[in-house]
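Hey Z.,

So I finally got round to the iron/sulfur cluster thing we talked about over coffee. Here's the setup:
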Amino acid sequence: MAPLDSHGRKINYLRLSVTDRCNLRCRYCMPAGGVPKHGHGDILGYDDLRRVAQAAVALGMEKIRVTGGEPLVRKGIVGFLEKLANLPGLERLVLTTNGVLLKEMAAELRGAGVESLNISLDSLRPDTFFRITRGGDLRQVLEGIEAAERAGFPYLKINVVVMRGVNEDEVADFAALTLDRPYRVRFIEYMPTSPGDTRRPLTVPGEELLLKLSERYRLLPSGREALAGPAVYYRIAGAVGMVGVITPVSCHFCGDCNRVRITSTGVARSCLFSDSGVDLKPFLKEGDGTLLQCALRRVVEAKPERHSLCGDTEGHVPLPMSLVGG
Ligand code: SAM
Ligand code: SF4
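And the result:
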């Protein structure tokens, strides 16, 4: 039975960041020079990450998303995922990736027991993609998506961070991908999260996006998935796939929040924008799984009702997404 937080929400979803390193430098996520690197000694080893996952599952969490930084750049990731997939009691193991290494790795990931992939892709135009990611090659990601389809993932989620004046004009093109492919294309409101970020005008509210899409397509509400993240889905009439919106900034989001996060350095955070976290390393050193579970339970119980981006950016704790795993 999944634990409840103090606001009565069922917390059944753990996001586990396995690295703060990345092979891209997306403008909304990382500074151009990357984030200050943690030493290898600060990043949790696979054994410790697995013990955190085990404690979370013992507490009643049912779904784990492995994220980063870019999880596929960490050596040995496939073997680690295979061990996670075999954790008794875990219902769903999923992964978020930028897709750059997917062409080579998709089949292994599927073989390891990863149930589905979220692939971040913010533009279908090579030059815009290059600009947003500071040097990324769109072709690699598109080939990665094809490889994932061949590997037999039943559906793929494509995450698009929509930014005004940057890629908002591509929303209809992304939605068109769902007409004949089993993709779930999710439009995410840009969150001003980096230190000193004053670019709130870049955020395109989810409602505005839906309005624009509905001028072009007939959208049928599809609701939410079981063990869901925060996306609200629609199906274009006759389409194979779905489109969704994720609205962390316009705040139709916190009331159904079901997750806690673990950073790659082993800090458990109950909210994306909270500065309070519990360092799990001392509990891992103790080697006592029950203490680890108690620490996680405390994090669940301390989950704030809503995050501090709601209404005003003032007072929110800016933290590059690559550190908390998005
Ligand atoms: N490297 C992987 C990737 O890009 O998919 C996983 C880590 S990334 C931090 C996880 C998710 O956070 C991505 O979908 C990314 O688009 C999203 N993200 C990062 N910064 C964001 C921001 N400022 N606003 C909205 N989404 C953001
Ligand atoms: Fe890397 Fe993902 Fe952040 Fe882009 S969003 S810089 S791919 S961690």
